[in-house]
Amino acid sequence: LGIRPNCSIHHLEVSAQSQSQSHSNLTMNLRSLALAVSMLMRGGVDGFQSTNTASTTRCAPSSFRTHLQSSVDSEETSSSLPDRRSILQKATTSIVGAAAIALSSPQRSDAMNAQSRTDGYAVQHTEREWSYILSGQQYNILRQGGTERPYSSILEGEDREGEFRCAGCATPLFASEAKFHSGTGWPSFATPLAGVEMEKVNPVQASLVGAEVRCGTCGGHLGDVFSDGFLFVNTPAFASGKRYCVDGGALVFSPKDGGEDIFGDLPPPANKKNDRPDFLAPPKINARDR
Length: 290
Description:
The protein contains eight helices and ten strands. The chain is an alpha+beta fold. The strands form two sheets. The protein has a six-stranded antiparallel β-sheet with strand order 3-4-8-7-6-5. Strands 2-1-9-10 form a four-stranded antiparallel β-sheet, with no helix packed on it. Strand 1 and strand 2 (about 170-175) form a beta hairpin. The longest helix is centred in the N-terminal third of the chain and has 39 residues, at about 5-45. The termini are far apart. The relative contact order is 0.11.
């Protein structure tokens, strides 16, 4: 191939030495980085300013010790200035810790809660019986923990006085006085009636991802409760601090005036305008002339 053997062998030896040196440097840099991250996670940037800095960095490479010492010296001269790195590190550590606590819970705060929807409830049916009693959408929500599409239930826009009951067993669940428009596309309530059962989760999990709510009589899935009611000013949720986000298909509305019951698995009227913000509305498509 026109390559002299001696030059080729020498080139391979140099390349091997260069790669070995690069791997060594990379390993040292990774170890230094790992040590730095470990120190940050233990004590934040404040750990760099402790009196035990020398002993803490004794096992670090010399290049890292030199960089660390220069960092300590520079921070000591400007200790009166706000340390943005320290603030960010502490905030990040808090967020990671909160997420770890929430994720460590054996139960999930959603419809996939492992608790049975049959055992311990007053109204019980086999799944086959439920499939005959309920419509397809009602069965999907109440018995399988499904979620309907936003703005797909006629009850999202229901504002009359009355009572919202379970579509599976007719247990009263929410009063019309507690209903408000959250803009989420699902019927929302500030407070429940005695017939609502809420999943028991730790406070961190309840604040981050909410908790499941069920019918306390038949165990049917209703939706979720969130601790963000304070965001909805001039609504009942602002006072209660809670937002019960409920699937309309799981409910039946009984008007106070004695009118006909309204089943929540029905779609809203085609000419009824919902409260969806303009930026969430689908784009208008103009038909072209052919």
